[in-house]
Amino acid sequence: MAPKLRDPSLFKQDVCYVNGEWVKARSAKTFEVHDPATGQLIGTCPEFDAQDTEKAIAAAAAAFEEFRHKTGRERSKLLRKWYDLVVENADDLATLISWENGKPTADAKGEVTYAANFFEWFSEEAPRIYGDTIPSSVPGNRVFTIKEPVGVCGLITPWNFPAAMITRKVGPALAVGCTVVCKAPGETPYTPLALAELAHRAGIPKGVVNVITALGNTPEVGEVLTTNPTVRKVSFTGSTPVGKLLMKQCSGTLKKLSLELGGNAPFIVFDDADVDQAVAGAVASKFRSSGQTCVCANRIFVQRGIYDEFATKFAAKVATFSVGNPFDTGVTHGPLIHSRAIDKVEQHVRDAQQKGARVLLGGHRLPDLGANFYQPTVLVDMTTDMAMASEETFGPVAGLFPFDTEEEVVRIANSTPVGLAGYFFSRDLERVHRVAEHLEVGMVGVNTGLISDPAAPFGGVKESGFGREGSMYGIGEYQVTKMVTYGGMGKKLQS
Ligand SMILES: NC(=O)c1ccc[n+]([C@@H]2O[C@H](COP(=O)([O-])OP(=O)(O)OC[C@H]3O[C@@H](n4cnc5c(N)ncnc54)[C@H](O)[C@@H]3O)[C@@H](O)[C@H]2O)c1
Ligand SMILES: O=CCCC(=O)O
């Protein structure tokens, strides 16, 4: 049965938001969106194509001419209004997130708060965008910089945070005066479309925010967003292979680019750690959104002296989870997003078992609950030849790897082409600094498994991409620095 919304008009079917209006695809084609918990049809959405996308870009380009000249204070007020509406409609947005993504209600509400906070944060940054005054090396010259909005932005986001991945991009883009075309994820389009409706109600001028949808046509839409010369910036969150493809496509017009890509987060527990605290941190990091976040612990390394104690306590905590329909009371973990996700998890568990891992907990699907449910799983005796050591599982499976020395574990932790988040637990101050400095990642959690915060810069190194979202650094991703030199200055006062 479809969940009820307090405000049913937030559920936008068969329309996208372009130039301040709700429009269908030119071809009238649609695609289906299914509830990952029940497999039932949620609704249909427009299958935008290249021409539809061009129209959205043209709308964003037309709006840019005026929007870029609004004052920071004006843009701040618009973002603040949008923030207020997101907060007012938090329950409905959370319902949409749970329905199309499968995360339990409490997690979905947490995501709405997280998402809204990006609007709040960047509404506060908008009036505080400064240039520089630079001492010139040429006598009589005066050098200034102006921070200008880069222009029309193409934003592409994944399904795992249907609201927050969008607000983390749109917030800074609007704060600096850019206009945007967001390609919503085909699995979870209804939350982005509800955000668009709230943008409309907030009075964001037409064409400033455009939200379009596609599933089968995704590569075609992506190609337009990355090759159309009017689009000056692309920001993508998703997998590394798609990020590499988009970067290639952007090269023809040399767009400014931010890539927030896949991770393979090491989570290291040294034997001087507070074991209970480390267990809590590892559970929180590994099983957030059923393991479907890019910063989830993917390889849990535990020093041999505390390995058994850690494994027993960790499995005991995971055993308390309640898996089920995201709307059911008491459920802590919902389904995975689709059958490909379940298949990958199953392959990783089977591969680990074949290579000698033992299942301490779980290790199987939950077909009685539905096709996309998997029992939260704990594997021990993991070794580095297993697929889980080198690939992101993106599911509710924790593999515990024993290790002996600091040097060994940091070397193994770094032996991957990606570097998004890394975590470790230790009470030795010198070690804390040493290890934090040696981990090849963009974000480090020390004695915590949760690092996401709109005030903190989010992003990776190596093949996890580049650019930072959130924080004061998030703003610069949507700006260009223009230098202005004034010659013939600094002369004597005229008498
Ligand atoms: N670094 C981060 O901030 C971050 C955040 C969330 C997810 N991720 C990563 O995303 C991956 C999981 O998401 P996924 O499997 O949906 O990733 P994905 O790369 O397949 O898809 C992400 C988005 O890109 C779109 N897309 C796919 N192919 C495209 C193309 N050719 N042109 C344009 N758009 C295209 C999809 O429709 C979707 O909206 C994981 O690797 C995860 O680590 C990273
Ligand atoms: O999945 C990636 C984003 C997760 C986060 O912002 O915490």
UniProtKB/TrEMBL annotation:
* PROSITE patterns in alphabetical order: ALDEHYDE_DEHYDR_CYS, ALDEHYDE_DEHYDR_GLU
Q: In which pathway does it act?
A: Amino-acid degradation; 4-aminobutanoate degradation
Q: Which GO terms describe its molecular function?
A: succinate-semialdehyde dehydrogenase (NAD+) activity; succinate-semialdehyde dehydrogenase (NADP+) activity
**Which chain positions lie within coiled-coil regions?**
none
All copies of domain Aldehyde dehydrogenase, residue ranges: 22-484
The cellular component terms of Gene Ontology attached to this UniProt record, alphabetical and capped at eight, are:
cytoplasm
Task: Report the superkingdom from the record.
Answer: Eukaryota
Protein keywords? Oxidoreductase
What biological-process GO terms show up in the record?
gamma-aminobutyric acid catabolic process
Keyword Ribosomal protein applies: no
Has the keyword Oxidoreductase been applied to this entry?
Answer: yes
EC number(s) in its UniProt entry? 1.2.1.16
Task: Give the family from UniProt.
Answer: Belongs to the aldehyde dehydrogenase family.
The protein here is known as Succinate-semialdehyde dehydrogenase
Which lineage? Eukaryota, Fungi, Dikarya, Ascomycota, Pezizomycotina
